[in-house]
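Pipeline run #58 for the internal structure catalog. This entry was flagged by the ingest filter as a single-chain record with no existing model, so it goes straight to prediction. Upstream metadata was stripped on purpose; only the residue string is passed forward. Reviewer on rotation: M.T. Logging verbosity set to normal.
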Amino acid sequence: MGFRLALLAWVGALGATLWAFTWTLGQPGLGAARVVAAIAVAGVAWALLRHVRRTNTTLARFVEALRHGDFATRFDGRGGAGFDDLGRALDSAMRDLQTQRRRGAEELRFLEALVDDLPVAVLTVEEQRGVSPVNKVARRLFDRHEGVRPADFATYGETFARRLAEPGATSRELLLLNVGGGVQRAIVRAATLERLGAPVRVVTVEPVQSTLDAVEVEAQTDLVRVLTHEILNSLTPVTSLAGTAAVLLGEEEPDIAEARLAVATLARRAEGLRRFIDSYRAVARPPEPRRRRFAAEPFAAELARLFGVEWLDHRLDVEVEPGLVLDADPDLLAQALINLLRNAAQASAPPAGGGRVRLSIRDAAIEVEDDGPGVPDEIRGDVFLPFFTTRPQGTGVGLNLVRQTVVGHGWRIEIATGALGGALFRIGVTD
């Protein structure tokens, strides 16, 4: 029966026995009955206390099991403990908690396995525990030291050891590390988290040497391909003109006028080849940005004036976010945008288009757009290569220098089709 009914029954029984005992006290000659009544009162009182105590003990054991995380226990309502409804509710809650705990444990095992199998090394830095490798890659890369202090990791690189010892904010940089059997470049990121109220720095190390090597080889292949094409294009007429001049001057009656014309043309072609090589030397020396903060509106106005002087028949629309302040090298950025604006003007020049160009400078991006024919998808990956050009008089240097300036600032550049129908060069200026 329920705890309430059982309690009422025992209280009723206690009341009845007390009444009987009191009644016997007023009746002479009922000594034996009086003793029996007293025993009955004591027995019922003991049974009532036992009922309450058993229920309290059952509840206490249940709560104690819950406190120790034993979600498999169940409320024992047998033996007259009562609280049937409460017991069912508590059992249901315990089953839910047990299910949630099992799911939480499964999720934790999944996350632990995921972190352990990550292709990036993960380390934690704590004040008490020191530096701890968290996953397989970390344990494989950092296996040549003893100790848990950041200084113990100096064997992999002095700068890396200093970064482990530096508390503070999120950081990201490319470091040279002596790991994996040799010195290689790796991207090192650090962030501060909190565990049990204490700060924990999480450091990830991603070796990228093999990726960079592959990219470098691919870039060298592209560069050699373009250089070979351009140099051969320049050497072919030079060789032909030199042969023509030699033939003319070797005749019994040399044609001096024709020979002079051939030599003059040869000199011009040689000078063109020299300028091409100078352009290559400029590409080989990437600029180093000297950043400072400056207002975007007067900067854009100056670009518009320079554009107007060179391209009188073109329309330039300038859009600048009011009050915007840029953090960049103004000279390098101006040169990069002048190159983009010049390319846009050349692409949109009649009859190719209507001669309209747009310059937009916002907080997150700088865009240069034209209404020309655009850049075909198949060559968008080549237009930033050194000396790649689709124009007969182009050098193929301008867009490469633009990309070097953008990358030097830690930004990115991409090509799309703009609202005007032509090419849209977008520089993402968010670091």
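catalog note: The mean pLDDT is 77.
catalog note: DSSP finds ten helices and twelve strands in the chain.
status: ready for reviewer M.T.
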